[in-house]
Design goal:
Elements: E1 3-5, E2 13-15, E3 24-30, H1 35-38, H2 40-50, E4 54-58, H3 65-70, E5 80-87, H4 93-103, E6 110-115, H5 122-135, E7 140-144, H6 148-157, E8 160-164, H7 168-185, E9 191-200, H8 204-216, H9 220-232, E10 239-241, H10 247-257, E11 260-265, H11 272-282
Parallel strand pairs: 3-4, 3-11, 4-5, 5-6, 6-7, 7-8, 8-9, 9-10, 9-11
Antiparallel strand pairs: 1-2
Helix pairs in contact: 2-11, 4-5, 5-6, 6-7
């Protein structure tokens, strides 16, 4: 819960419920219709052994991100569980909070992210986060941000901000806006996380390009995001290599720019073997 106190001659000082500002390595997968059958528990156990700090899943067409994360609870004790993100156009704050409580997700390990979904309203995100603060006062709450205004809003109200399809230079640009929003609100800047698409194997570059093309067909903010970055540097944000030994060096600039670098896997096969191939490559020589 955000708490503020007024000090003479200063802005309100606001304490945020986010983890200490130490660099984290996360791993991201798509939500699964049958998380147990898909091997999420086994994957999570392996991630914790490999030294990952976070496991992330998003609400998607296949299933619930929260239900997918719940499957990791029996086999892990340390790794944080990140929802990135629940679309507020599809799920109300009451529904999200109800699912968290029904599934028994521990708030001290949960990173609960929300986004606009098919909408684009900053007001809807502001109201959604405020409602979740009332419903889940001890939760770590974050928002998805692509553009400058949402980054500033994240700095103002969130415990973490989740970026997407951002190169290291765009991450630095986004962090500046997040810090501006936090400063204007008189609060500590939140953590900055980002999904970094990562592919390994002979067709890795093609998988990364195909995923970027798919996102370009989504609502206009994604097209603007890609276009803005293309003006500064060619290529698609993310990491792709035939040789897994090359992945850590390619990820290094992202990890240096972020509080949480989330290796968003683009596996050769959509199963535990494919996920683990990416997870293991990202931790080589760590």
């Amino acid at each position: 819960m955000l708490r503020s106190r007024k000090e003479e001659g200063s802005h309100p000082v606001v304490a945020c419920h986010h983890p200490p500002m130490t660099p984290h390595l996360g791993f991201g997968i798509t939500a699964q219709a049958d998380p147990r059958g898909a091997g999420v528990a086994e994957l999570a156990e392996a991630l914790e052994t490999l030294g990952y700090d976070e496991l992330w899943a998003n609400d998607g067409r296949l299933g619930s991100g929260l239900a997918t994360l719940t499957a990791a609870l029996p086999t892990t004790s340390r790794i944080l569980l990140g929802l990135g993100v629940a679309p507020l156009s599809n799920r109300t704050p009451s529904e999200i909070a109800g699912a968290v409580e029904h599934l028994g997700l521990p708030l001290d390990r949960l990173l609960l992210g929300v986004g606009t979904g098919s909408g684009s309203s900053l007001a809807a995100v502001r109201q959604g986060v405020a409602a979740l603060r009332r419903l889940l006062p001890d939760a770590n709450l974050g928002i998805a941000a692509l553009g400058p205004r949402m980054c500033e809003l994240g700095g103002e109200i969130a415990d973490f901000v989740l970026l997407n399809w951002a190169a290291p230079e765009r991450i630095a640009w986004s962090r500046e806006r997040i810090v501006e929003g936090a400063r204007a609100a008189g609060r500590e800047a939140p953590r900055v996380a980002c999904y970094v698409r990562t592919a390994v194997g002979p067709d890795a570059a093609a998988r990364l390009e195909a995923e970027a093309t798919r996102y370009r067909s989504r609502p206009r903010p994604y097209a603007r995001l890609f276009d803005a970055q293309a003006e500064a540097a060619p290529g698609v944000p993310g990491v792709a290599a035939d040789n897994p030994d090359e992945i850590p060096a390619l990820l290094a600039p992202y990890r240096a720019a972020l509080d949480s670098c989330v290796v968003r896997a683009l596996p050769a096969t959509p199963d535990i073997a494919g996920w683990l191939a990416v997870a293991e490559a990202a931790t080589l020589q760590r």
